[in-house]
Amino acid sequence: MSDGGPSPAAVAVVARLGELGATVGCAESLTGGLLCGALTDVAGASAVVRGGVVSYSTDLKESVLGVDGGLLAHEGAVHAEVALQMARGVCRVVGSSVGVATTGVAGPTEQDGQPVGRVFVAVVAGSVERVRRFDLEGGRAAIRQAAVREALALLSAVLEGPPVFAPDAAPGEAPGEAAEGTAGGLWGGASEETR
Predict the structure, then answer these.
(1) Spatial separation of the C-alpha atoms in residues 135 and 118, rounded to whole Å
(2) pLDDT above 80 (res 163)
(3) Helix 8-20 with 140-159: angle, nearest 10 deg
(4) How far apart are CA 39 and CA 75, in angstroms?
(5) How wide is the angle at C-alpha 20 spanned by C-alphas 4 and 87, nearest 5°?
(6) Are the beta carbons of 62 and 73 closer than 8 angstroms?
(7) DSSP 8-class letter at 156
(8) Exposure pattern of 173-193 as b/e (b: 16+ CB <10 Å)?
(9) What is the pLDDT of residues 25-76, one digit of tens each?
(10) In the predicted model, what is the mean pLDDT of residues 153-169?
């Protein structure tokens, strides 16, 4: 992400994925591969990063990632549910246990009625699904870099949740039974709505 080496946030995420025996896939729109690039800047990332899909075009969100065409037609590509469906879809496409997605408007003009700087970031890990909305400031480069930082932060938050990961699950496979007393899924916890 910078000439100074990998970001500390990316280093922490890669380390945590390794501890959990989990893998990640990135579905990116406005970040155009920057998020996957930030993760793969980290030495040893090949053990946990399965790959990514840059679905910059709206039709690719539907045809490659499986985002609902009706949702895209009605709400546009910059929407919380689109981000969630992108994250789910990349798990299927690359065979990862965790999916992270970014969609938004980097500018210079609005898109689908959404203002410049509006970004949705989603993480899916088994039954845990989180999505957050951000209204970021600055030019295109600043918005895109901020979106990467927010995606890494949300991914880190999900990975630090109560671990009930089943390391023997096949890539992209739904996790097994949750540990007793947890909410279920890869990591315990409820879905988080946009903020």
Answers:
(1) 5
(2) no
(3) 30
(4) 30
(5) 75
(6) no
(7) H
(8) eebeebeeeeebbbbbbeebe
(9) 999 999 999 999 999 999 999 999 999 999 999 999 999 999 999 999 999 9
(10) 72
pTM above 0.90, yes or no: no
C-alpha 125/C-alpha 99 separation (Å) is: 7
The dihedral formed by the CA atoms of 3, 7, 8 and 12, expressed in degrees to the nearest 10: -140
Q: List the 24-28 sheet strands across, edge first.
A: 49-54, 24-28, 98-104, 118-125, 128-135
Contact residues for 188 (Cβ-Cβ < 8 A; gap 6+): 128, 161, 162, 164, 178, 179, 182
* Backbone phi, psi, residue 110, to 5°: -65, 165
Percent of the chain with pLDDT over 90: 78
pLDDT in tens, 8-20: 999 999 999 999 9
By C-alpha distance, which of 79, 98, 72, 74 is closest to 87? 98
